[in-house]
Amino acid sequence: MLSKVGRLFQIRTRFEAWLVIYAIALGAVERGRLYLETYPGAGGWLLAIACTAVVFVAGGKLLDSVRAPAPALATGPYHPSVQRRAPSGRSRPTRLQNRRGSESRISRRKD
């Protein structure tokens, strides 16, 4: 029974994350307004700015924790063309470096 209640508090979609961020922002602005009334001057402004800055940190963490929707698959009768060349645009593979260094085969040949 406790696990069923716990599932109600899980944020699964980005829409739910945005709703939670909005609620946090409302609370932060109200708290910042209270700080401005309680502590007039620079101290109140610093506390109010700190309250609203927390919304950006918490909102970023919430949005990063929610999985992005899977990309839609291409549907229809058309298929993407097959790439026939190497990604670099060369038609033949590049030569690997020799194990003994950068000397060529000719210079290594013993006469």
Q: What do you see in this structure?
A:
By secondary structure, the protein is mainly alpha-helical. It contains four helices and no strands. It has helices at residues 2-7, 14-38, 42-65, 105-108. The longest helix is centred in the N-terminal third of the chain and has 25 residues, at 14-38. It is elongated and about 85 Å long. The N and C termini lie far apart (86 Å).
Write the layout of secondary structure elements.
Elements lengths: L1 H6 L6 H25 L3 H24 L39 H4 L3
What is the straight-line distance between the termini?
86 Å
The ordered H/E elements are HHHH
Which of globular, elongated, flat, extended, rod-shaped describes the shape? Answer: elongated
Low-confidence stretches: none
Structural class: mainly alpha
Tell me the major beta sheet: none
Number of strands: 0
Number of helices: 4
What is the overall pLDDT average?
79
Helix content: 40-55%
Spatial extent as radius of gyration: 30 Å
Provide the β-strand percentage band.
under 5%
